[in-house]
Design a protein that fits this description.
heterodimer; A: mainly alpha; two-stranded antiparallel ribbon; 21 helices; about 75% helix; B: mainly alpha
């Protein structure tokens, strides 16, 4: 029965999302949504335990002999990513149960939970599937439901941001579909493992076509995962969405597409094929540019949520950088950073939602002296910021450290300077908030200690996220060992 | 707005025929060209024509917003359950409905109930989209 957990996860989420529409009472809606997500989280734990002991699970749907190639394949990275994503989603839903009324009108709340359930189902689908066309379908579902949760707030900026996101990600999925059509016309398969078997022997005869396919996949999935020059939709969408939605978008949605890119580059093609094309150097260049320019643009922002959103662009740069190195260890660190950043960025977004709600202002400069009024909340923010900057033990440091080691391993030592510069730039935009919040006589004047305290029970999901962040940092050696694609 | 009497009388004759044809396309979907989606669009069109000829109050009494959402969600839940069962049952060797004789209406297992669910869903969604464009709500 454990083998069927991937399909059960998706079915349960979709089933409960449709039950949510019928239920009128908002409290019941919240309960149903949270309960279904917690159930899926426990199923993911069972799945991860099974995969970690047994190595790999394949599940072919509707066809025992797998002639159609419609298949789920769960190896260790998929299982761990699925586990962490469901965990983050449970925490975000817990948080939104008491927060969402502040930003979304009463009659739209059930739509949020409906869309969140469909979104998580489609994200898990993209992670688990081993079939290109199914992954395309899941990508489309996730895009549409992501647009839905941005537009829930019904303000001018939300509509503008959603239309921008919709247009850009439609272009992205169009490119992905075109790439799938190309690869199908070359190999005659849609199953990633079957394509791998054929393309590994025949790619010399189709070098140009393979290059086009690689380019289409990189740009198409790059638009959706906000790789640097294609990121322009992200700051608007992520900063204008309701806070739980921005946490979901920034922590989970953009990661899934980059993981899909990893699967395509290294599982469908292989390290050998991919490294013989110019594409890896371009991916490396895009990653480095994202690391530097994403941070520079984050420094220039005056609004808190926009700053955190631009920081996502920089952190996506790290993931793409890890892919671009084109080695097994580089990919393992990219996957590790997907997990670490999912936990860190969701907690940062949730905290900034609380800060904005309590101070009543989106601006960073109004947060001066907030450390005296909300010491514990800002303390959690500080831990997240430490991880982003790269203080040891926390996941941000681990990925920077191993990325540098991999750079030395492949003989590209100058690239370490980019990692170093990016961390220093991260300091420039995260630390002013922390320092102005806690220190400075002018800043603290007239502020009352713990005046804007938040009940402990409301902070609990964020605390759990931060604890899991530290745990992921501490277990980094074991985790990175699992991520071999 | 009061419509012409000719339109109303012709509508009384033609709309049942349109609906009958839609139901035929849905139920015959596994035997001939057509199926849930195409039959559903025909049914949805008949709802739109009713709205245009007899006014919105007529159709509001027939299908209120509550009823439409109920139809949509129940057919989706039904689809998810049946399709999920058919995914799982092939692997777990659970009982299957008989395939029957090719050419009979009651044949080919799960396809007929799935087509009916899709048809109801598509018909309701078509009317919902139309009414969102007409008066900004369902």
């Amino acid at each position: 029965m454990i083998n069927y957990i991937p399909i059960l996860n998706i079915l349960i989420l979709i089933l409960f999302s449709f039950i949510i529409i019928i239920v009128k009472n908002n409290k019941k809606v919240k309960f149903i949504s949270l309960a279904s997500n917690i159930f899926v989280f426990f199923l993911s734990i069972i799945l991860a335990r099974k995969v970690l002991t047994q190595n790999i699970i394949t599940l072919s749907l509707g066809d025992p002999n797998n002639l159609l190639g419609i298949e789920f394949l769960i190896s260790k990275p998929e299982a761990v990513i699925g586990l962490i994503f469901t965990f983050v989603m449970v925490m975000i839903l817990w948080y939104s149960n008491f927060y969402l009324e502040k930003e979304v009108s009463e009659n739209r709340i059930s739509f949020f939970y409906l869309l969140i359930n469909i979104l998580l189902a489609s994200l898990l689908g993209v992670i688990y599937t081993n079939d290109l066309f199914n992954s395309y379908v899941f990508i489309e579902i996730s895009t549409l439901s992501a647009c839905g949760i941005i537009i829930l707030k019904d303000k001018k900026e939300n509509i503008k941001a959603t239309i921008k996101y919709l247009i850009m990600s439609t272009i992205g999925s169009g490119l992905v579909l075109m790439a799938i059509a190309y690869i199908y016309s070359i190999t005659g398969h849609l199953n990633i493992s079957n394509i791998h078997e054929i393309i590994i022997t025949n790619y010399q005869f189709h070098r140009n076509a393979v290059l086009i396919i690689l380019g289409l996949f990189t740009v198409g999935l790059g638009i959706k995962s906000a790789v640097f020059p294609l990121h322009s939709w992200l700051p608007d969408a992520h900063s204008s969405a309701p806070t739980p939605a921005s946490a979901v978008l920034s922590a989970l949605v953009i990661k899934v597409y980059v993981f899909m890119l990893i699967k395509i580059l290294f599982r469908m093609f292989s390290y050998e094929i991919v490294n013989s094309f110019i594409i890896m150097d371009i991916i490396l260049l895009l990653g480095s540019m994202g690391m530097i320019f994403g941070s520079i643009m984050a420094i220039m922002q005056k609004e808190l949520k926009r700053m955190v959103a631009y920081s996502s662009v920089a952190q996506m740069g790290y993931i793409v950088f890890g892919i671009g190195l084109g080695t097994i260890s580089g990919t393992a660190i990219a996957i590790y950073h997907i997990i670490g950043h999912a936990v860190t960025k969701s907690s940062l977004f949730l905290i900034s939602g609380l800060l904005i709600d309590k101070t009543g202002s989106k601006k960073i400069e109004d947060l001066k002296g907030i450390g005296k009024e909300m010491p514990f909340t800002l303390g959690l923010f500080t831990l997240g910021a430490f991880s982003m900057v790269g203080i040891p033990i926390l996941p941000g440091f681990i990925s920077k450290w191993y990325l540098s080691l991999t750079c030395i391993e492949v003989g590209r030592v100058p690239l370490i300077l980019i990692i170093l510069a990016s961390s220093l730039l991260n300091v420039l935009y995260y630390f002013p908030i922390v320092i102005n919040g806690y220190f400075g006589n002018d800043n603290l004047e007239g502020k009352i200690y713990k005046a804007k305290k938040i009940p402990f029970i409301n902070l609990l999901p964020i605390i759990l996220l931060v604890i899991s962040m530290v745990v992921i940092g501490g277990m980094s050696y074991n985790l990175i060992g699992l991520f071999n694609i | 707005m009061e419509r012409d009497i000719i339109l109303k009388e012709i509508g009384k004759i033609l709309i049942p025929l349109v609906q009958l044809f839609g139901i035929y396309v849905i139920i015959n979907g596994h035997l001939s060209p057509g199926g849930g989606f195409s039959g559903g669009t025909i049914l949805g069109t008949s709802l739109i024509i009713m709205h245009l000829i007899y006014g919105e109050n007529f159709i509001k009494n027939l299908y209120s917003k509550k009823k439409l959402i109920l139809i949509i969600s129940i057919s989706l839940i039904f689809y998810t359950l049946i399709k999920g069962y058919s995914f799982l049952s092939t692997e777990l060797n659970l009982p299957h409905p008989p395939i029957g004789n090719p050419g009979n209406i009651l044949s080919s297992g799960f396809i007929l109930p799935l087509n009916i669910a899709v048809g109801l869903l598509v018909a309701s969604i078509f009317y919902v989209i139309f009414s969102i464009f007409i008066r900004d709500e369902v």
